[in-house]
Every structure is written in structure tokens, then in C-alpha cells.
Automatic annotation (TrEMBL):
The keyword Metal-binding does not apply. WD repeats lie at residues 67-98, 161-199, 265-300, 377-407, 583-618, 628-660. Keywords: Cytoplasm, Nucleus, Repeat, tRNA processing, WD repeat. This is Elongator complex protein 2. Belongs to the WD repeat ELP2 family. It is found in: Cytoplasm; Nucleus. It comes from the Eukaryota. Gene3D superfamilies: YVTN repeat-like/Quinoprotein amine dehydrogenase. GO terms for cellular component: cytoplasm; elongator holoenzyme complex; nucleus. Pathway: tRNA modification; 5-methoxycarbonylmethyl-2-thiouridine-tRNA biosynthesis.
Length: 775
């Protein structure tokens, strides 16, 4: 059986992609998954589970049943009681009623609203004050907020609220109790937030008098506000006109409601991406959370709540501001929400990473609240293509098409019997090209390749060493502490440069609080590693990277359509110079390179459906000794057994072949076993289980992982021990598998990465396994 020890997952780039419960459970879309994260967990284990099922990226969620709701991607969703409303880029808004049948939850389509070639971007649903009438607010690719009322089970458009100057991106209703007005908050790409009050018209005013001369005067006043001379500041419309909503009353007559503009909240410097009212509690004051592409999160409250004054006019004030000022502004914040009944704030950014703030005492009210940032979860925001364990297995490095390299480590918790809490601890490389693979040269040095012709080598700064030691993730010698404090990228440069030397403190901007794990803002700016070397040699963009078990050699290959460029180049890791001649023989791109445990053999597999074996001779270079073309399709991956007596190849032809040297002792190798898989085999890794059985993990194109085992002395008898499906594993092409190194063998933790954008560490346990320390 297999269980998750760690899931690195980021939030999709949509503002409705997450929601939270009062109990502290946060659910958000990650690629094609819905991820679950419990923020109130004592040890903060991050994402605990991913729910598969979607065939595309999750944009908004409220999963009650899987149905084909729209012909084009869904862009907005809102749920209130038994009514679900969805909006999509087919310019339709659909209303659904939630019921139950013998199969469970039932969704019945009740109505379809057409927006006439306008796309809905946000929806909000609530109840009119002192009524059971539903009100639906729709915002989209125009500047008006549409209000629809449900009468006789049918929504009818009643009003359009004008004032915003750009698309409407966020809507949210708030009502303290049935007596108070219903407040609608609307946020736009114009950077402004507007509050609208909806309340019943108590007096029996004839309908002819509702459009009184006073409203005509207001219309003239609003028109004068819009007349701004060329070059002058302004242009924001202040609409004071009262809109009237009419609906049927419970007594059989009609009931009218007024909608009036109440406040204009100005504080963000760029477009609003999300709005959330704080969950109401008895006697609590209203508070509004807003996020923006200006990289800020603002909390708004009426001045009466801040000064504890009950009488007099109340202005809305931004009483708390979080995020970055003049810092990382790429996309800013995409969305935000309240957690734990208003005691926590959570926001996710353009790259999918989360920021998390906790209120020390929410009961004190907005005027006395103290907020502190705490750790959150992170993950790649695109397909993850490469991973590698540090030599001693203390931490893991990953790289992906989001152009970042990330290091993850397990932090011991206070309970010695509990599993460590895994988190991202460093983001050493933020590149301008898609990153494809990465390997550790030693515990504080790694090499990576991207969609370019260069291999780049990085060395850890002192801040990384101190963070890992203080968090008890790993231990380093005194000599390993003597290194630059950090790294930065010059304004006009492309390479990470060292900041500070080994004996002096770095500039304060690069100082990290090494007593805790870095937050998302620090990971994105202050955990870079200095670049130590560049290695050139290939004529086309790099495609794969391998390293020998002794860490003496690294091997690279590039994209190729002919034999001239389908070569493998080997470099020593001391001087980073070419070692021997390029390894020729393939005619198409080499997809993977693996060295035997004693480093005497180099195995390569290719798109040309062949594998080739090269042997080290006289310590001067590698020469070809064997080759085979038994696979019918591209060979994606290869791996050696830790004992070096056999290797495995994984192919798109849905087979994994086991190869052993011929019994006569010559250089030929033959397939002793062919394992058939239900889908194309894309990744493979082999681990010894000590004195009992050896284990083979196979990653498939559909994201599943198969685990086989064989006796230590017989590589011909493979038994399927476990199938890890998408409930625990992945839902897309698996690129790499790697067993965690362990002294004496017998690793039971398996790292995997996939096109689905997640990195995972799985605990793989059988009845015969011993407990792995640190699981």
C-alpha cells in the first residue's frame, strides 16, 4: 500500500479557485485536482489529499456531482443553500437546484440566462432583507453589475449598477442579520471597490413618486462629475441614484427594495481580483478582504468599528495591509479568502504560491487586531520535469516548466513519533527558460538544464546551510558554513551573483530569519543560490541530464534529429571539462542517461527505440560495448539495480524490460523478463529492500505508479505488489521516479513528479517492510 508523505501543489491562476470552511479546511484547484489543506493542523503538513476527476485545469469549484454543465470553460460559480449558479465563457449563466436521489446528490438545471456575448467573471447569490427572495449579482466583461431577482422560481433582471470603469472581477454579499441591509461589494479592474446597500422601502410610496425630481437632479450631478477636463485627474463615477427592485411579497402583493451606492473604497493601485466578507459572529463588526494585482491584500472596516463609536457618520478605512510594497509584482495576488471563521487570511499569487496570516486574538475587533505571517504551502505552477535526492537523502530538489528550481525538506516536529512536516525551503534558481532536469553534484551544489544550450551549476549560500541546520533538516561541517551569504540577479544580468562573503554579514535585504522556514515572498526573492559554472558543448537545446553515483561525472544530451547531434557529452565535476569523446551511436534524441553503481558503465536510451551501453576504459573515456533495439516505441527511461547486476528500460510500447549480462561473461546483455503495463511506461526506479526483495517502481503515462518486487537473487520473477492510482499518485504523464537514499538500502519512500504539476513523496509499505525512520 502507499500513502502520501508530501504533496507540493500550487493554486491555479483563477480567483474563484479556492474556498475554506469554518473548521480550517481549505480546498483549491491544482491543475486537474482539487487539493485539500487543513490550516489549523498543529504541525502544518500542507496538502493532505488531492481529488482527481477533472479533465482540465480546475478554475472554480464546488463539487457536488460531475456533469457537463457548459460547452466552454466555466469561469465563475456560487452556491447558496440549495441553489448553484455557474457561469462560463459561452456567455451563459445557468441556475441549478441541488437535490438527492438514490445515487446521492442530484443536480437539476432550472434556468439559463444569456449575457448577450458578454462573459461572466464573478457571481454572488443572497437573500433580500426580510424576505425569502433570492438575488443574483453578475459581473463580467462590461462595467455594470447586473442584479436578478428570483420570482416564481425564475430569475428576472431588475437593475444594472453603473459606476465601475472596467471589467467586474469580484462580487460578494454580506448581511449581519435579517433586519440589517444587504450589502453588495463589487471590485473591478479599475482598482476600485464599491459598496451597495439593498434594503426594503418601508413607506407605501407610489411607484410614480419613486423617480422623483430629486433623482433627476442626481442624474445631472453625476453627469457633471464625468466631465473631467483633458489631463486632469479623476473620472471615477459617484452614482447616488437609487435603483428600485420590485418583487412579489409573501402576502401576494409586491415589495420594493432600494439599491443605493454607499461607499467607494480606494486604496489599491491595480485591478481587484477578489473580495470576501469576514464570516459574521455575534456582535462582530463587518470587515472586507480585498486582493489585487498590485501585490497587496487589504482589510477594510468602517471607522465606527475601529473607534468604537456608535454614533455619527462612518467611513470605510483600510486598517490592515499585507503583501509586498515595491517587491515581487509579477501578477500580484490572484485571490484571497478568510480561514478559521475569520481568524486567518490566505491569499495565492500569480505563481500559485500561498501567503498565510494569523490573527493573535480576533475577538478584540478590527481596531486592536495583531496579524502575523505564518508558513503556507507552495508548489510548481506548471509541469514538473526533474527531481533528485541529496546524496544522503535529507532533502529533495525539483525543477519544472514554471522556470523554477525548488528544494524541499522534512522538518521534524515536536512529537518524536510523528512524521516530519515537508515544505519548500529554498528556490535557488528562477530562470528565463523552461527547466527540464536537475541533479545534485554534492549536498550543496547542483547542476540544471533548461531549454537552452547551457548546463548551469549552482552552489548553496550560507543562509541555506543555516536554515537547514536550525530546522534540523540536515547537518553540515564548519567548513561548509564558509560561503557567500546569499545571491541576487543584477539589474541587467542573467546569472545569480553572490552577495556577501564567508566572514561578513550580507546586506540586510538578503538576511533571512533562519529560525523558521521561508515564506512565499522570501522564497521568490531571497533564497537564490549563486551560479558557479556554465558548461557549453551541445549545438541544440539540452534535453536530459545524468550524474554518476560517485558524483564524479555528469552527462548531458540535447534535442536531435540526426546522429551528429544525438550524442552524450560527459564532464568531470571538478573542473567541468569534457571527459573523453562524445558518446555516439543514437540517431534521435537521447531521453535518459544512467550510470551503473560502480560508474564503469553508462546506459543511454533514445527516441530511436534503442538503448546503448558504454564502458569506462583506462579512466580516459567511455567506449560502446552493447546495444539493442527490442522495444517497439520510444524508450522514455532507464534505471540500474543498486547491485549493478541488471538494468530496466521503460517504453511507450507498454513494456518494461529487465536486462542482464549473458551468463558466458561476454559483453552482451539480454532481456530476461518483459513486464507488460496497462499504459505507456514513462519512468522507472529500482530499490533494494535489504536482505529480502528488490523493488521496481514504474510510472505510467496516465499518472499511475506500479510497484513490483523480485527475490534478491532472481531478476526473472517479478510480482506486482501495489498499484498506486490517481487518488494517491498523479493524473498525467510521470517524468521521474526516485527512491530516497538510505544507508544499507531498503528505502520505502518514493519521489515522483508529473505533467499534472505536482511533486509527491509516497510512503510505500508492504507487510515485510520495516519502518523507515522519519516516515
Amino acid at each position: 500500500m502507499a500513502s502520501s508523505a508530501y504533496i507540493a501543489a500550487s493554486a491555479n491562476r483563477f480567483n474563484h479557485v479556492a474556498d475554506s470552511s469554518d473548521e480550517g479546511l481549505v480546498a483549491f484547484g491544482t491543475s486537474k485536482f482539487v487539493s485539500l489543506w487543513t490550516v489549523d493542523n498543529e504541525y502544518d503538513y500542507g496538502v493532505s489529499q488531492t481529488l482527481p476527476g477533472h479533465g482540465g485545469a480546475v478554475t472554480c469549484w464546488s463539487l457536488v456531482r460531475t456533469i457537463q454543465a457548459h460547452s466552454k470553460p466555466i469561469s465563475a460559480v456560487t452556491l447558496f443553500r440549495d441553489t448553484l449558479v455557474t457561469g462560463a465563457s459561452d456567455s451563459l449563466v445557468k441556475v441549478w437546484e441541488i437535490g438527492h436521489d438514490e445515487k446521492g446528490i442530484l443536480l437539476e438545471e432550472k434556468q439559463t440566462l444569456s449575457l448577450q456575448k458578454r462573459y461572466p467573471l464573478t457571481l454572488a447569490l443572497g437573500l433580500l432583507p426580510q424576505s425569502s427572495v433570492y438575488v443574483l449579482a453578475i459581473g463580467g466583461t462590461n462595467t455594470d453589475v447586473q442584479l436578478w431577482l428570483r420570482s416564481d422560481d425564475t430569475f428576472v433582471q431588475n437593475a444594472k449598477l453603473a459606476g465601475h470603469e472596467d471589467w467586474i472581477r469580484a462580487l460578494d454579499f454580506h448581511q449581519v442579520d435579517e433586519i440589517q441591509p444587504l450589502v453588495l461589494a463589487s471590485g473591478s479592474q479599475d482598482g476600485n471597490i464599491r459598496l451597495w446597500n439593498i434594503e426594503p422601502i418601508v413607506s407605501a410610496v407610489p411607484s410614480a413618486e419613486l423617480d422623483s425630481p430629486g433623482d433627476d437632479l442626481l442624474d445631472a450631478f453625476e453627469a457633471s462629475l464625468a466631465e473631467v477636463a483633458e489631463g486632469e485627474e479623476g473620472g471615477r463615477q459617484i452614482s447616488l441614484k437609487r435603483h428600485v427592485l420590485t418583487t412579489k411579497s409573501s402576502a401576494g402583493g409586491t415589495q420594493q427594495y432600494s439599491v443605493t451606492f454607499d461607499a467607494l473604497l480606494v486604496g489599491h493601485e491595480a485591478g481587484i481580483t477578489s473580495l470576501k466578507w469576514r464570516p459574521s459572529t455575534q456582535g462582530s463588526s463587518p470587515a472586507l478582504l480585498s486582493t489585487s494585482t498590485d501585490s497587496s491584500v487589504i482589510l477594510w472596516a468602517p471607522s465606527s468599528a475601529l473607534s468604537h463609536m456608535e454614533n455619527g457618520p462612518s467611513l470605510w478605512i483600510n486598517y490592515q495591509r499585507f503583501g509586498d510594497v515595491g517587491g515581487q509584482r509579477l501578477g500580484g495576488f490572484v485571490g484571497g479568502l478568510w480561514g478559521s471563521s475569520g481568524g486567518r487570511l490566505l491569499a495565492w499569487g500569480w505563481s500559485g504560491g500561498w501567503r498565510h496570516w494569523k490573527c493573535l486574538d480576533p475577538s478584540k475587533g478590527p481596531g486592536s487586531e495583531v496579524w502575523n505571517e505564518v508558513g503556507a504551502i507552495t508548489g510548481h505552477s506548471g509541469p514538473v520535469r526533474g527531481l533528485d535526492w541529496s546524496p544522503n537523502g535529507d532533502y529533495l530538489i525539483s525543477t519544472g516548466l514554471d522556470q523554477t528550481t525548488r528544494i524541499h525538506g522534512g522538518i521534524p516536529v515536536s512529537d518524536p513519533s510523528a512524521a516530519p512536516s515537508w515544505h519548500e525551503l529554498s528556490r535557488p534558481q528562477i530562470h528565463g527558460y523552461d527547466l527540464l532536469n536537475v541533479v545534485f553534484i554534492d549536498s550543496l551544489k547542483f547542476a540544471s538544464i533548461a531549454d537552452e544550450k547551457v548546463v548551469r551549476v549552482f552552489e548553496a549560500p550560507r543562509s541555506f546551510v543555516e536554515v537547514l541546520e536550525n530546522l534540523k533538516v540536515s547537518q553540515f561541517s564548519e567548513e561548509q558554513h564558509q560561503r557567500p551569504a546569499g545571491a541576487s540577479v543584477p539589474a541587467l544580468g542573467l546569472s545569480n551573483k553572490a552577495v556577501g562573503d564567508g566572514s561578513h554579514q550580507a546586506l540586510s535585504i538578503w538576511e533571512l530569519d533562519v529560525s523558521r522556514r521561508p515564506f512565499e515572498g522570501e522564497l521568490a526573492s531571497s533564497t537564490l543560490w549563486p551560479e558557479a559554472e556554465k558548461i557549453f558543448g551541445h549545438g541544440y537545446e539540452s534535453i536530459t541530464l545524468g550524474i554518476s553515483n560517485s558524483r564524479r561525472f555528469i552527462a548531458t544530451a540535447c534535442k536531435s534529429t540526426n546522429a551528429e547531434h544525438a550524442v552524450v557529452r560527459i564532464y568531470d565535476t571538478q573542473l567541468f571539462r569534457s571527459f573523453g569523446h562524445p558518446l555516439a551511436g543514437h540517431v534521435l534524441t537521447v531521453t535518459r542517461i544512467a550510470f551503473s553503481p560502480d560508474d564503469k558503465l553508462a546506459l543511454t536510451v533514445s527516441r530511436d527505440r534503442t538503448w546503448r551501453l558504454f564502458e569506462l576504459q583506462n579512466d580516459t573515456g567511455f567506449v560502446p560495448v552493447a546495444a539493442d533495439k527490442s522495444h517497439g516505441r520510444i524508450i522514455w527511461d532507464c534505471a540500474w539495480a543498486p547491485e549493478g547486476d541488471f538494468f530496466a528500460t521503460a517504453s511507450r510500447d507498454k513494456t518494461v524490460k529487465i536486462w542482464q549480462r549473458s551468463a558466458d561473461g561476454n559483453a552482451s546483455w539480454s532481456a530476461v523478463e518483459t513486464i507488460k503495463t496497462p499504459e505507456a511506461a514513462t519512468a522507472v526506479a529500482i530499490s533494494s529492500t535489504g536482505s529480502q526483495r528488490r523493488r521496481l517502481a514504474v510510472g505510467l503515462e496516465n499518472g499511475h505508479i506500479l510497484v513490483y518486487s523480485c527475490p534478491v537473487n532472481n531478476a526473472r520473477e517479478w510480482k506486482l505488489e501495489s498499484t498506486v492510482d490517481s487518488r494517491v499518485a498523479h493524473v498525467d504523464h510521470i517524468h521521474r521516479l526516485s527512491w530516497r537514499p538510505k544507508t544499507g538500502g531498503g528505502s520505502t519512500q518514493l519521489a515522483s513528479c508529473s505533467d499534472d504539476g505536482t511533486l509527491r513523496i509516497l510512503n510505500v509499505q508492504f507487510d515485510t517492510d520495516q519502518t523507515y525512520p522519519g516516515n
